[in-house]
Protein 1
Amino acid sequence: MDSNTIIQLSHVNFYYDQSRALTDISMGFMKNKVTALIGPSGCGKSTLLRLLNRMNDLIDGTRVEGEILFEDKNIYAQDVDPVEIRRKIGMVFQKPNPFPKTIYNNIAYGPKLTSTNHNDLDMLVEQSLKQAVLWDEVKDILNKSAMNLSGGQQQRLCIARALAMRPDILLMDEPTSALDPISTAKIEELIEELKKEYTIIIVTHNMQQAARISDETAFFYIGNLVEYNKTEKIFTKPDMKHTEDYITGRFG
Amino acid sequence: MRSFKNNSMKWRYFKQALFFGTVRLSALIIALALGGILLYIIINGISAISWDFITQPPTDSMTKGGIMPAILGTIYLTIGAIAVGLPLGIASAIYLTEYAKQGRVIRLIKVGINCLAGVPSVVFGLFGLGFFVIFMKFGSSILSGSLTLGFLILPTIIGAAEEALKSVPQTFREASLSLGVSKWQTTYRIVLPNAMPGILTGSILGIGRAAGETAPIMFTAAAYFTAKLPGSIFDEVMALPYHIYVLATAGTNIEATRPIQFGTVLVLVAVVLSIDLIAIIIRGHIRKNKRW
């Protein structure tokens, strides 16, 4: 594991009850890069993403084999608290899911409950909203319900909410699939900006999006990692025929 | 061909009209029945209602005077039942829906709870007598009555709370957990507040039942007659449902007290509605700002 790798999977298998969803995955994610996970529906890319912050723990009957090293420790080791892992590895979901609270309280919720230092809460909220490029739109309505925002604004709010925890890694599960093109463009710009400070791993169904925003791309097919390389390489001259067929739209 | 089509359309419209007609009629019958009962009670009971009736204790072997101790007793018992049933019911529902591993045992427990909802109230009354009044030595008291009524409405509240908790979107839980917030905090800060309006809606049914039941309090809390107001939760109280029962079956002069009986029924209905109204107002207050 070289120093540019922030999280390393080795020989990871994942099962939903008896059926295997991921087969022998070994890969490392690079620090301060955007890595895109692509592949047809059901290929296991979202499953993999949710493995990284132990969100799959919430589903009964799941089982993990292999090792996922983060900060030199297997995050599936017995003595690791998944709650601690999730503080360091944040997540943005497919559909914007703000809490039915005010904009301010959506952002302050996590920090308020998880840290003892509440002095700079106002500052933290402002910073996080600025990082998510939402501050100018909401600074006068911080005490209004987040449910009144548009879909794109809600998604940026969810990004700000995750950023407020100051995570090391931000996982994004098709964050723009429920948004219009303008909102999508804004989120993509935002991702470009965020990679300076965070490591971003994003699942997307949109080939152009993967090509536009990611540095690395991994192609999955029925639970297998088919090809993993620099995005440029994957989209110009992939090693595998399978990858080429997929990105050119010949199947999937 | 064309006329066949027309006929088939007519037939379909006829079926639709028939269906809507039946549904409307059912609704109308229910409304009339309810309205009829209410009207009957009001017509027969309104003459007994006066300021003295609701503020004075009964006099002359309960053939004259008011029913104030019974009103107060019912309010105490209902509040007591809520105080017992609501926290216990919500806690059980949280365990069943949020924490317990779904499986055979939990299914069995849920069936048990549903059976409990069907147990006749007099059985709860006897249980209260045996356990709270005698074994725990609480005596016939507000405490024993509240506990018995609390247990009586527990299945209703658990059922309502389970449904309400399940209706909170899973995405809220995921969002909270993904921030590194613990499961308990997620439940307490996100799931429970969003389920509260639903829990209260379902609980209103239980509250109405607690206020109106006679059998469970007959052995555990209700006094035949006491002009004295309770000084502590270990005192007996009069209660409206039991008072009605007494006046209508065992009074010294059943015929002469008919207006008082109807008056008491009317007051009981009003008390139940008021308690429901308070719950509805609280629900409305919580519901503000809570939509998804």
Note: The radius of gyration of chain B is 24 Å.
Protein 2
Amino acid sequence: MSVLVDKNTRLLVQGITGSAGAFHTRQCMAYGTNVVAGVTPGKGGQQFDDVVPIFDTVAEAVEKTGANASMIFVPPPFAADAIMEAADAGVALIVCITEGIPVLDMLRAKTYLQGKDSRLIGPNCPGIITPDACKIGIMPGHIHKAGHVGVVSRSGTLTYEAVGQLSALGIGQSTCIGIGGDPIKGTDFIDALKLFNDDPDTHAVILIGEIGGSAEEEAAAWIQGNMDKPVAAFIAGLTAPPGRRMGHAGAIISGGTGSGQGKVAAFEAAGIAVAPTPGDMASTLVASAKTRGISLA
Amino acid sequence: MKIHEYQAKQLFRDFGVPTPEGYPAFSVSEAVEAAKRLPGPIRVVKSQIHAGGRGLGGGVKVCKTLDEVKEQAERMMGMQLVTHQTGPEGQTVRRLYIEGGADIARELYLGMLLDRDRGQIVLMASTEGGMNIEDVARDTPEKIVKVWVDPKVGLQDFQCRKVAFALGLTGKTVRQAGKFFHALYDLYVAKDCSLVEINPLVVTGSGDLIALDGKINFDDNALDRQKEIEAFRDLDEEDPREVEASRWDLNYVHLDGNVGCLVNGAGLAMATMDILKHYGAEPANFLDVGGSATAERVTAAFRIILGDARVHAIFVNIFGGIMKCDTIAAGIIEAAKQVGIDRPLVVRLEGTNVELGRKMLAESGLAITPAADMKDGAEKAVAAARAYAASL
């Protein structure tokens, strides 16, 4: 099994006619994702690649196609609006790939989502994939392998790195969730960990954090108190200088908080294995699982 | 994005946040003219650089006469101002701000920023004005009061009163504080700020509140809709390599080490820095070429990395997802043609079109050390940097 997305996911794409939206929609369809609708205001009634109907609004797309998930490729100035439109239409899972959304826009969108039934993943994320079932996002599908390790990460390429290491060892993944590199995001580590903890088909988890904020420290405490599956962590940015934004808008050490060393210390204090280098993420998880008598391959 | 104090105070005035009268000066004669426009006799000459700690470094001086203003302006203009935030080489002073003196009864602290855990803007204040707020937060957290703003309704009067009374304000100053905090919040939202800091916020002898200092940072993601703010950008305050990188849409941060890095993805770029350190070297930079880099941008990235003489080796670490390995390979070959890669180059390619990328590099005739994986690449890059340094 898996979390959040599977063969039953019916995907709509907001911004399907833009260059990135079109390219990645085709990649998702080639992987086997069931793309049922596209939304581009003003292009309602047209078809994408002769197979996917395009609608003017998300509400109409949901009504006509029964879409239950949305992938957003709308440009940054309009992306927060797109998130709220999807939530208003009752889309259960909203995956926002867009990078560069103004922080104040995301504050408003996140506040708007409170009390609604929609879950947001991202923004500024690679998306979510359940191998061999459903890919929503920009990750390279071919490196994945179906299996039982959950991956949750603030970084796209580091997720690929972890997945590549797992697959090379013959270890498959249940679901990989990229929660994104922005300071204000929908799904956070603890949300994803709860899902993995409750999923009988996820046997262990790799968590990939980075400098900035305190979500890793909170996740470490939650794992210690609640998680009954092995977890291995990796934190990127131990050598990053304070006060400098390291690519991701959320990756900045500021006001004396958010250092990588503090996050590593929080995981170690909670008894969670931390990979010494990014090249050791899979092997650290395997070793950690082994000490608890769990074989992952 | 950061701006100068005098620019922040211009925004303060635009939004009704009281601040002393003052004028910017770009030369000594302008500084003297600015001082003459102020009533006097006390004027303050303030160096305008983006780093904090200017006063301790000799970059802020209170003057009693116009002659003294001229003397201090002559001393400061063009000086290398060293503060705890500039690094040992300091920052060149090119702009001054000449401000009227203030009758200071109390010094307070006021800050407004994003609380990312709560997903709300927080207004924080402290009675410990003039101190480093991070030290106050660590040593005496009870001296900091915070209120969080609900984005649905904005800052409320009761929240302003809570802060004002916690600061020990009384009478008309409480009412002034309400207007002051509201004006600051309006500025924060209207201009897409990421940080507004007033340290010190001053209560004058007559009980008026004024912003004696002003620091504002802005959300880089919002600059497209804040053209007026973007016009405040001072390229002299930025590392020239980083300015050049931003022209190519490259995420580059200059660091002090000896191994240059060229990576796709911010997380992998940070992790690449870390693994170099793990194997005993220091990264010379953070560089994320992004998921949609072209061979042209990869060439520009090489030019920037090679422009740093301290770089003794380069580690290219790519896990191609969207970024195709053959694009990176083409960029490396093009860079070798255009700029000449005169230092050891270790390349690790993985992911989309990896076989094609490796083949292109192997057939290019370039002296490239291929790496099997990230650890192998990092070890080889560290060893190559050592060997290169020894050969100099």
Note: The first strand of chain A starts at residue 11 and ends at 14.
Protein 3
Amino acid sequence: MEEIFIGDFEFLGKGIPRVDAKDKVTGQAKYAADIEIPGMLWCKILRSPLPHAKILNIDITRAKRVIGVKAIITGKDFQGFRWGWMPATRDEPPLADDKVRYYGEGVAAVAAVDEDTAEEALELIKVDYEELPGVFDPEEALKEGAPVIHEYRPNNISWEFHMDFGDVEKGFSEADLVREDRFATGRVIQGFLEPCSAIAYWEGGGVTIWAAKQSPYFLYRHIAQCFKLPLNKVRVIQPFVGGGFGGTKNDSVAGDFCVVMLSKITGRPVKFIYTMEEVMISARRRHNAIIYNKMGMKKDGTITAMQSKLIADGGAYTAIGPLTMYLTGCISTLPYKLPNFKHDAYRVFTNNPVSAAMRGHGVTHTRFAAEIQMEMMAEELGLDPIEVRLKNAIEAPHETVNKVTVLSCGLKEGLLKLKESNLWKERGKEKRKNHILIGVGVSGTAYLGGARQRGHQAAAAVLRLCEDGSIEYLTGATDAGQGSDTVLLQIIAEELGVPPEQIDIQRVDSAYTPVDPGTYGSRVTALAGEAAMKAARDLKRQLAEIAAKEWNVKPEDIVFKNGKVFVKDNEEKGLPFRKMAQIACYSGSGRVLVGRGHSEYGIEPLDFEKGIGNAGTSYSFTSQLTRVEVDAETGFVKCTDMIIAHDCGKPLNPAIVESQNQGAAVQGLGQAIYEEFKMDKGKTLNPNFADYKIPTALDVPNIGVIHILTEDPNVPYGAKEASEGAIVSSPPSVVSAIHDATGIWFKELPVTPEKIALALREKGRGS
Amino acid sequence: MEKKEISFRINGEEVVLHVSPNRTLLEMIREDLKLTGTKEGCGIGDCGACTVLLDGVPVNSCLVLAVEADKKEILTIEGLKENDKLHPVQESFIENTALQCGFCTPGMIMSSYALLKRNKAPNEEEIREAIAGNLCRCTGYVKIIEAVKRASSSIGGK
Amino acid sequence: MIFYRRLPKFDYVKPASEAELFKVISDGRKAYVYAGGTDLLPKLKKRLLPPPDVLIDLKGISDFNYVRIFDGKLRIGPTATIYSVYTSSDVVKHFPILSQAARSIAAFQIQNRGTIAGNICNAVPSADSAPALLVLQANLTLKSREGERDVRIEDFFLGPTRTVLRDGEILREIEIPLLDSESLGLYTKLSVRGRMDLAIVGVATLILKRDGKVKDVRIGLGAVAPIPFRAKKAEEILKDGKITEASINEAAKMAASESSPIDDHRASKEYRLLMVETLVRRSLKKLLGV
């Protein structure tokens, strides 16, 4: 078992096996689609074949007559309800009512006794559309006279975000070299293997819904709003989740609202499962953006100023877009010193599928542009890529011009480790082997952890001590696969001195578990972890008081370790934890011991409009080396190696931290060279895994992860974030490697073999 | 559409069922036999989440008709462990943190199990090829490949 | 627009003999014949084909499942899986190019069910087995209730997903004549990922030698024209052993000019043409030791 020493701990810093591993390897773990309730009906959704059209009429009379159809609904049944991330941007209906705004938007839904019948019924629903001109490119949508997608945004600008710090013009004038470049990130999707699915059961004036959600409490609030239910009548239960990666499963989908409505009408449980094609066409994607980046650099590599303008394709609705725009700029002032920074971000409506969050949210676009441009300038000035990064890297403690405060930073240490690696040392020694060009690239990036949005941001934990010493742990935090359940149990185990097997984690059930903002922005270990730690300490305090009375000492002198409760420096005076629990519970007329804790920020409020302040409780720093072999004629890229130096503060479970880094890096590799949705007037041409190419086992490189340890006081046990850093560091590292191999800077993702082959030919380096 | 009676063995057990011709093996396993360990990812043979062994070879059960199970032997993830003892491949996945969300895991394990049955000491290239039809979005495959390597040595491959 | 998760309704029959098959195949109902189902089932699920009244499963006819050398030819039956062809010792020994091509198709799960016969009857221009079968000059036996007819592989394809197969007719056997001379072959598949991809360009190159001298060069191309085809003009340039670096380059260029690829979401026409030239040149150089 892998172990990293991060302190005198029994369970922390150890790569203990995941607590849910056995259920998953035996097939026992139940996901939403695995759940079956007697009497359950199946829901299927009819979707628009047009990207922009008025709905004139929907005729359901023939469909209603199909035997086995129990209910049919259309957009009108939701009575004008709109949902969205902010009150000001609630522009999305569960099913389109006045018009459809993207190809595949839902317009009607059927509940029937089985899925075959539901599909048959959909075939008989007749929808009359009046097609409207559509717009599919954000820069086109900004032009005068472009089709207006939402009345409340006549210029099609869904959201804007502006930052202005220092004096960029002065900064550019101080520079010896100024560059302006246009970059573009591609159309990519989370790519989780589990399609969206949920079962809703309306009974007793409320609804219970089992749903595949990464953050169930979003759905909880959406359902309450939509169906005008008090929150205590909305019960969201979470099964195991088959991957999230932000976006779709951190939001609600048409199917969720439909099954609740259909269950309300029929009085029976109703289930939906999307097909993967349906997910790819109708669910959320990452924003794709054009980034105009301008940077000023002195001869010695010092960055003097940066100005970025980002135009994002927001798709048909706003969703979480405002946060995305904020994130494209709020930590652009990391990880390099940047005294002057201006950023203008525009999220533009188009008749494309809705863009929302995805791992590395917002930062992936602008960090990609800045990293590549910085290296381009270093090259022009004759500076080494690692040296220029070391020159500009921040050191903790550091406050940026927009008041982002960094209390720990392992960037320099990471870069230095990479510099010492054989991979970097061998760079340039062999640049070509027959028709294969070899290159090694580097990147140095940052991401935030313990994310904070607007609204309710606290995590809480409840620990119930059972009289036999076993413990029930209630948390609203979700493990969508990233391994947080295990790490949270390690924290509680460490605090109470009992093995993780003695603690049982209850998956989210909003009837019992405390509300939680959700699993995103790498906040679970930081914030739910803080809550768990505090709940454990609360429980400890209660037990310590009882023990202290027993042994006539002060509560502060009681130690919980190795399954025992004893007096400090006098282990003889002690009892096994289980015995202590029994005594505590049975003392007097019986006691109920419950530990409670919640997270607190202790940081100043942030200014969301201006991009001032901390978007998270801490920041991770990821430096990455990538080695590629590029076929000089076909452009085919084989990525052979990656080394990731990741500063997550303290890896509470090093095996999980590594796995997260490897997964994020491969997802980043996919974005960099393989993945891309091809669009034709709003229609996705490749909505399947054969043509939307996520990496397979044959495509992935060897990936080594180096743990960089730092001390951060703002997080439990010093654990920052370990889930998103590598998806930010990966694409620029890959593109830097491709440049090292080919001599060409590619500024648009994905960098496909075709792009490389044609560019090499143009450059005259064909063979 | 006439239902057909089929009889087959699944995870060592004899079963007789009446199935519609248009039912897939995956649907039968999950919905008729309630063995929900095998997952539906894409439903069209691109992702491998539905991998089961049919007469000992890995197939995408979403592309096999249920009627074709007649007189055949099926092995799903639920059939790997013996009583309470996990198969070495399963143990290895746990020990080597070769999973995250777990959705691809049953299919991934079935492909790995099939590999080790036909090749006791696969090299890395052979392992990668064996699981090339099983997509994973969470792990980046690195620890999965490691887990299969270690499972093969514990089964006595090297 | 509906995203179907279920297959449409149909009847299913599994004839146990050829006689039974031909009785059922033309009994008036709309029937699709299938073996592996790995191309058919996704199409049916997505409603890209009109639903049939009946699906006829060929796998009940045990005589259909073979890969063997018999009577001077390699013979592949209609239900021989891709995996069985790629691992057949006869194929590996005598026609390694076909083994290579078969191995490049998708992944094990598909190879254990899909058939070579199905791969060519599905007739997408990028079918991986087609270029290899073209250079091996395979002969196809088509059979119906009326009888049998032979069709050369190069006459089999009519266009994307269209072949000369008539209603009620099946591909009964693929036969490949044993080569009477020493041969070297290579199938190169250009794709974006290492696996699971349809070929952007597929090139099969076969060199036949006699007494150490090159006697014949055959080039089969896939995914770069409406049908897989042999680049005969390119072959002509290398005829009678006129093998030099210059003639190879010329042949490669000619092969590209004989191609007519399209722009689609997988690749552009321009790139495909360049890749035909590159891959033909490379495989010729490799096989001819130039």
Note: Residues 21-29+458-598 of chain A form a domain with the Aldehyde Oxidoreductase; domain 4 fold (CATH 3.30.365.10).
